[in-house]
Design a protein that fits this description.
Length: 274
């Protein structure tokens, strides 16, 4: 039986084309479109335009900018939308604005929000720059890649899991694979639903989030913890063969710091006895 659009595109390996930015994985729009057209040369896309000026976005003063795309392969069309965001995934608006995050620090082995001398909780102010047409353009092309993923190409980037197409259940999740339905549109919907279900189960089974994917607050906490315990990144690398704390899981990093600190204390105690 001939593969459906979704089955055919989901089998394409795009891992070698993925690039990283701000510790996130991206599939460049040119690569996504090229791979799509190799399989479906007649594929087309549209960018949403609005109002008398036919601007390529809609804008709300409170919510920010939103862009829209539409991809068509044969008789099948999928739509997608994406907000214009900065590197911290904060919505960009016409004017720059600020927001606060908790000022966190390690205290007696626990992560706690810092307090001023009078007991007032402390925050760090951050800024979101105003959006430009460059930001809108980048978001449109990112939206196009996400739109293409709805057909199966690169969908694992968003599902964070492999999509199985054989007749056996996935060994890790026990979720049945897609059946051999003859209705292509029904099969596409089943494939998307399967990816969503697998992603949910995989998230429950997944190990702790790696430190390099952690928040800025967590990365700051790791550095504070290592400084407080007198452990250098060179010591971490020497014992655990890792380049930095950020390449370790949160649990590994904390364990490494505690282990090295204990070893250092033992060495100090031995030196004192001698």
């Amino acid at each position: 039986m001939t593969d459906s659009i979704f089955q055919k595109l989901a089998k394409i390996d795009v891992t070698k084309k993925i690039v990283q930015k701000n510790r996130l994985d991206y599939l460049p729009w040119a690569d996504a479109w090229a791979e799509l057209c190799k399989s479906y040369p007649d594929a087309t896309y549209k960018i949403g335009n609005f109002g008398e000026s036919q601007l390529p976005y809609i804008y709300d003063g409170n919510m920010g900018y939103m862009v829209f795309t539409e991809v068509t392969i044969g008789a099948l069309t999928h739509e997608m939308f994406l907000p214009v965001m900065d590197g911290a995934n904060k919505a960009m608006k016409k004017e720059a604005y600020t927001y606060n995050v908790k000022d966190m620090a390690w205290n007696n082995g626990y992560s706690q929000q810092r307090k001023d001398t009078d007991g007032t909780l402390l925050f760090i102010e951050k800024q979101v720059d105003s959006a430009t047409m460059f930001d809108v353009n980048k978001t449109i092309m990112r939206c196009l890649v996400k739109n293409i993923a709805m057909f199966g190409l690169g969908l694992s980037l968003y599902a964070k899991d492999d999509i199985v197409f054989d007749d056996e259940p996935d060994n890790k999740t026990g979720i049945p694979a897609i059946d051999n339905a003859t209705d292509a549109d029904s099969l596409n919907k089943k494939g998307i639903k399967l990816a969503e279900t697998q992603a949910k189960v995989s998230a429950e089974l997944a190990p702790p989030t790696s430190a390099r994917e952690s928040t800025q607050e967590q990365r700051t906490e790791l550095r504070i913890l290592s400084d407080q315990k007198g452990i250098t990144l060179q010591q971490i690398h020497g014992k655990y063969k890792r380049k930095s704390l950020l390449s370790m899981t949160w649990a590994e990093a904390k364990e490494a710091i505690d282990t090295l600190r204990a070893r250092k204390d033992n060495q100090d105690a031995t030196t004192d006895k001698n």
